[in-house]
Specification:
single chain; 334 residues; 6-stranded antiparallel beta sheet; globular
Length: 334
């Protein structure tokens, strides 16, 4: 397996969970069918061989990741499903250029990325709080770079524009999906759309934001010291937008006696560790979880995900909705 792989061998590489997830639609099946040829093209184009010592391939929600080598150097090859959100990944990685995020070596423009190899055995997800808070905050400070004259910035979505779009979309979806939570929570999210959208346009604080920066998307650096971000779904706007994923992960670890108050403390602590405004972080998190809740409400089989989003959103409003599970019983995201 040390040489470039032929199509038959490549076809066996797709992990079972990835095949199961993407074989449900015609587009997904077409992507899976094209993986062997895409893999072989990348191996040949970039002078790579599969790494015999790597136990992969690995899969995330929307990509296959394979350990590869070029001479004595070890990398990973990522083949991503063409979700709209995935288009921002190579753009953001070029802008960060290895400072706080995994380094991008090659991009085929069709979802294949050659990346430096990080240590998947070291995840921020496994670091206990409050140490994880401090590490996450330091990473956000590094990633929050201001706009400059590089053309890549123009390809990224603006968070103030996203907030304005949600102000129109959320009420329509709330009605269409049967009003799955009280109106006051919808109105709380719409208030954030109005306030943060305006502040974002006028505040002059726009930076590059990793919008999915939870503990499973932070891995150990190759030198064994520190951590780096992976899998960015990047946008431009207020850095406080980045706090939310660290709130909807690891909920069972919150104090049992007063979990909603503990979540608010975690929000404040994360924001302060990153040098951010805690109230802006709380507001963005409320909006993001209401939007997530409506996404889950429109899908089948996501009832427990919906409960988690409603728990987080209402707890951050200091008005926990009745009838939801305890924090320790909410569905995990790991």
């Amino acid at each position: 397996m040390g040489d470039a792989l032929g199509p038959a061998t490549s076809a066996a590489f797709a992990p079972e969970d990835l095949v199961r997830r993407y074989s449900r639609t015609a587009a997904g099946r077409a992507w899976l069918d094209g993986l062997p040829a895409q893999l072989d093209r990348c191996l040949e184009r970039w002078g790579l061989t599969a790494d015999d010592d790597d136990p992969g391939p690995w899969s995330g929600f929307g990509a296959m990741v394979l350990g590869v080598r070029r001479g004595s150097e070890a990398f990973v090859l990522k083949l991503a499903y063409p979700y709209p959100e995935s288009a921002s990944e190579p753009v953001a990685l070029r802008l960060w250029n290895g400072d706080g995020a995994v380094r991008l070596l090659e991009d085929d423009g069709a979802g294949a990325l050659l990346l430096e190899r990080l240590d998947p055995r070291r995840r921020l997800q496994d670091v206990p709080f409050p140490e994880a808070t401090a590490l996450w905050g330091g990473l956000v400070r590094r990633l929050s770079i201001p706009e400059d004259d590089r053309p890549d910035w123009a390809a990224l979505e603006r968070l103030d524009a996203r907030a304005e779009r949600w102000s129109d979309e959320l009420p329509e979806r709330w009605d269409r999906f049967g009003r799955p939570f009280p109106r006051w929570l919808l109105e709380a999210a719409l208030d954030v759309c109005a306030t943060r959208g305006v502040v974002g346009r006028r505040g002059g604080r726009d930076v590059l934001v990793h919008t999915d920066l939870h503990g499973m998307n932070v891995l150990g650096a190759p030198d064994g010291a520190g951590f780096r971000a992976i899998d960015p779904q990047a946008a431009v706007g207020e850095a406080e937008f980045a706090v939310a994923p660290m709130l909807w992960n690891r909920l069972p670890e919150l104090r049992r006696a007063d979990a909603p108050e503990a979540l608010l403390e975690r929000c404040r602590d994360l924001a302060e560790a990153a040098g951010l405004n805690p109230e802006a972080a709380r507001e963005w998190a409320v909006l993001r979880e209401v939007e997530n809740a409506l996404w889950y409400a429109g899908k089948t089989g996501h009832e427990r995900d919906l409960e988690r989003s409603l728990w987080v959103a209402s707890a951050l409003c200091s008005r926990l909705l009745p009838g939801l599970p305890e924090a320790r019983d909410l569905k995990r995201l790991d």
